[in-house]
Design brief:
CATH superfamily of the largest domain: Alanine racemase
Structural class: alpha/beta
Number of helices: 10
Oligomer: single chain
CATH architecture of the largest domain: Alpha-Beta Barrel
Largest sheet: 9 strands, mixed
Length: 376
Amino acid sequence: MTARIRRYIAEKAPATPCLIMDLDVVEQKYEELRRALPFATIYYAMKANPAPEILQLLSGLGSSFDAASIYEIRDVLMNGASPERVSFGNTIKKKADIAAAYELGVRLFAFDSECELDKLAEAAPGARVFCRIVMTGEGSDWPLGRKFGCEAEMARDLLIAARDKGLEPYGVSFHVGSQQRDVGQWDLAVGRTAMLFTELSERGINLRMVNVGGGFPARYTTDAPETEDHAEAIMAALTKHFGNHLPEVVVEPGRSMVGDAGMIHSEVVLVSHKSYDDDERWVYLDIGKFGGLAETMDEAIKYRISTSRDGGPTSRVILAGPTCDEVDVMYRKTPYELPVDLRPGDKVDFMSAGAYTSTYCSVGFNGLPPLRTVFA
């Protein structure tokens, strides 16, 4: 909890649940990444937290933006960005949305399939396109699986087809997995990318850009390499596989940019046991999976937690949300311990919760409103 957030809670006593953001931390994280990767262009992944205050701040700092929908594109253009600083990075787009983005001036698009390429050729003629290759996400807390990307052999053929369809084959992208803890994954991904550059150069296509995606860490309960460690691994991989002919480099931070800048302030609703001889203590909060903590699915992301009763004896708890849904349990297997005298009305805070919370929350499930965001 930053001093600014602590002061905000003391002075405002905000109703729970709410996400409290500290913009000073967002700026610090942006500058930290810019120092660590001075040769790269930063495209903030808006899906992590698209609050207008964050977009305005980052736009003023010179950031570019990775947008996942036409709605995000419109939002960021309204909050200070110019279209040449926007990438339509989702590989799953409606043709109408591609056309709308193109009309707004966006000229950089991602794809990973022949069908998507055909839509781009028709709706965004002459645009720069980059093909995403699939990675396993091994070593990450939130792997992305095979929903996005294609195998390198297919990417090669698609980029050739992009040229033949009047588009500009611009580069290759990948994502090593969110909250990546194995910096060796960068070498594997960049190596595959460099091979594609070579194969396409032999076919008369000179790619210009490598988009290394995200994967940089926020501070949860499990240790992860620092941003500087990831940056060193990226630079080493690029030098190893591209030598002195380094391509343009794009990086798409989301979690690392805003995660540590936010804290979810919540309240205990109920503390209970399921039988007289049951030593399992259930703690129900006014926020759960559907209220913004979706990344607790499979207990993948493990937030640091503090309470208003910290300092006394603790015991093991099961943490659950308030909704009438059996899956709304955040942590059952992970050994969280909270104060034994925790009572309804006490406050429970989730640290480093600024990313993928306000945007994941449901709208109206059980009649509950979406997670409110405030700025300290």
